[in-house]
Specification:
The protein is built from 14 helices and 2 strands. With about 280 residues, the chain is mainly alpha-helical. The protein has a single domain (about 1-284), classed as Farnesyl Diphosphate Synthase. It has a two-stranded antiparallel ribbon. Strand 1 (about 90) and strand 2 (about 95) form a beta hairpin. Helix 1 crosses helix 3 (about 45-55), helix 4 (about 60-80) runs antiparallel to helix 6 and helix 10 crosses helix 11. It binds geranylgeranyl diphosphate (GRG).
Length: about 280
C-alpha cells in the first residue's frame, strides 16, 4: 500500500509550498493555516490524484485540485472544532487550531483555507491549459462543500446532536456532511483528466459507496462500547454495532463492484481496491 504513503507525502509537500508567504505581514494567519492544514491522512486528495491518474492525467497537472480539496477538509475540521460547533480541543493529535491560536484566528484560518482552495485551482497550469476542466472542478467543489453538501450536512448534524434521529435522517446527514466532499474529490480527479460522462458516473458511484463506508467505520472507531454515552448522531447508536459493521461491508462490496465495472472498461483499479482494504483494516 505504498502508493498511499507516496501520494500523501507528495500532497503534504505541495500543501507546504502552497500555504506559504514570503511577506511577514501574513505571518500569524499563515502559521495558523499551516498548523492545521499540514497533517491528516489525505484520503480526499489521494482520491483526486488517483482518479485523475487512472484516466490519464499526471500528478503535476492534478496536484492543485488535491491541494484544494485538502484545504477545504482542513477548514471544515478547524470550524468543526470551534466551541460553537463540536467543541473539540484535540485535532490530528495536537491542540485544535482555536486552542493554539484563539477562536478568532481559528475562524479566520478556516476562512482563508476555504477561499484559498479556489485560488489554488484557478491559478494552476491546468486552468490555463484546460479552463473548462478547472471551471467544472471549481463548480463541483464549491457546490458539494456548500449548503447543498458539507455545510448543509453540518447544520443537520448539529440539529441531530440534540435529539434522536432515525436511519433515514442519519443517511442524509452522512451523504451531505461526509460523502459530498469525497464525491467532490473524486469528480475533480475525473474532470481534471477530461474523463467522459460515463466514466464520471462510474467514479461517482464508487465515491458514494466509499464515502458511506468511511463514515460508518469512523463511527465504529469512535464507539467506546457504551451505548448510553454514545453520541445520538452516531451510526452505531442508531443501528447498533453489529449492523454498522455489516452495512460498512455492504458499501465496500458495492464499491468493489463499481471498480469491477471500471476495470471491465480497461482501467487499472488496484489502488482503489487497496483503499477499500485500508478502510476494512481500520475497522478491525
Ligand atoms: C464546519 C462546514 C463544517 C463542516 C464540518 C468535516 C466535518 C464537517 C466535521 C468533522 C467531524 C466529522 C467526524 C466529520 C465526518 C467526516 C470525517 C470523518 C472527517 C474526518 O476525516 P478524516 O478522518 O480526517 O479523513 P483527516 O484528519 O485524516 O483529514
Amino acid at each position: 500500500m505504498s502508493f498511499l504513503i507516496d501520494d500523501k507525502n507528495l500532497i503534504d509537500s505541495a500543501m507546504s509550498t502552497e500555504l506559504f508567504s514570503e511577506s511577514s505581514d501574513y505571518k500569524l494567519i499563515v502559521e495558523a493555516m499551516r498548523y492545521s492544514a499540514l497533517g491528516g491522512k489525505r484520503l480526499r486528495g489521494i482520491l483526486t490524484l488517483e482518479f485523475a491518474k487512472m484516466f490519464g492525467c499526471d500528478f503535476d497537472e492534478t496536484m492543485p485540485y488535491a491541494v484544494a480539496v485538502e484545504c477545504i477538509q482542513a477548514y471544515s475540521l478547524i470550524h468543526d472544532d470551534l466551541p460553537c460547533m463540536d467543541d473539540d480541543d484535540i485535532r490530528r493529535g495536537k491542540p485544535s487550531c482555536h486552542i493554539a491560536f484563539g477562536e478568532a484566528n481559528a475562524l479566520l484560518a478556516g476562512d482563508a483555507l476555504l477561499t484559498h482552495a479556489f485560488c489554488a485551482i484557478s491559478k494552476s497550469s491546468s486552468a490555463k491549459n484546460h479552463p473548462e476542466r478547472a471551471i467544472k472542478a471549481i463548480n463541483v467543489l464549491s457546490d458539494l462543500a456548500g449548503f447543498r453538501g458539507m455545510v448543509g450536512g453540518q447544520v443537520l448534524d448539529l440539529e441531530a446532536a440534540e435529539k434522536e434521529v432515525d436511519g433515514k435522517t442519519l443517511g442524509l446527514i452522512h451523504k451531505l456532511k461526509t460523502v459530498a466532499l469525497i464525491k467532490a474529490a473524486v469528480l475533480m480527479g475525473c474532470f481534471a483528466s477530461g474523463a467522459d460522462e460515463k466514466l464520471c458516473e462510474l467514479a461517482e458511484n464508487y465515491a458514494e459507496n466509499f464515502g458511506f463506508a468511511f463514515q460508518i467505520i469512523d463511527d465504529i472507531l469512535d464507539f467506546d462500547g457504551n451505548y448510553e454515552t454514545c453520541e445520538l448522531n452516531s451510526y452505531v447508536k442508531v443501528h447498533g454495532l453489529e449492523k454498522a459493521r455489516k452495512d460498512a461491508m455492504v458499501y465496500i462490496d458495492s464499491a468493489n463492484k463499481n471498480l469491477l465495472e471500471l476495470s471491465e472498461n480497461g482501467f487499472e483499479t488496484s489502488n482503489f481496491n487497496e483503499l477499500l482494504d485500508f478502510l476494512i483494516k481500520r475497522m478491525k
